[in-house]
Amino acid sequence: MPLPIYKILDRSLSTLNFGITSVILIRKIISLLIATVLISGTVYLGIQSGKDNRFVIWFGIASAIAAPVGIGLFTYAFRGSDREIIQQLAKVPEIERLIEQAKTQEEKIQVLEAERSRLAEIVKIESRRQAALDRINSLHGDAVRILAEL
User: Which string of b and e fits 8-40 if b means at least 16 CB within 10 Å?
Assistant: First the structure.
């Protein structure tokens, strides 16, 4: 009995993923080795420059070029790939709930900001009204005093 097409495709894809994974692993190991050589060489030149001044220029060049490249290769070797991170995030069952919760929180924030601006406008209008009432009372008191003096 022949194998169904989806099983054949699944086998070929798993082989492809294994091939990609092994290539990435080899790249990371090589990067780690090269980074170790570059940083070790820079340290060696630093030690030699302390003993002999002829190595100072080479140490400076290695510090400016080889050490940063080595550090970059170290970070590449130890950093997880973006694909792996995305696959791990896709496995989180709560991600949809978290996205919905973030959307509802954002909507609540927008409603609260609208309410805050509406309340600020009400406070401004109320303070103007209260100032006008105080001015009216003051003018009324002045008018009564002036009429009493006449």
Answer: eeeeeeeeeeeeeeeeeeeebeebeeebeebbe
Q: Are 42 and 62 in contact, with CB atoms under 8 Å apart?
A: yes
Rounded to two decimals, the pTM is: 0.44
Residues 110, 102: Cα–Cα separation, whole Å: 12
Task: Report DSSP state, residue 46.
Answer: H
User: For residue range 84-104, what is the model confidence (pLDDT) as tens digits?
Assistant: 667 666 666 667 777 778 888
d(CA 63, CA 49): 12
Give yes or no for a contact between 60 and 91, defined as CB atoms under 8 angstroms apart. Answer: no
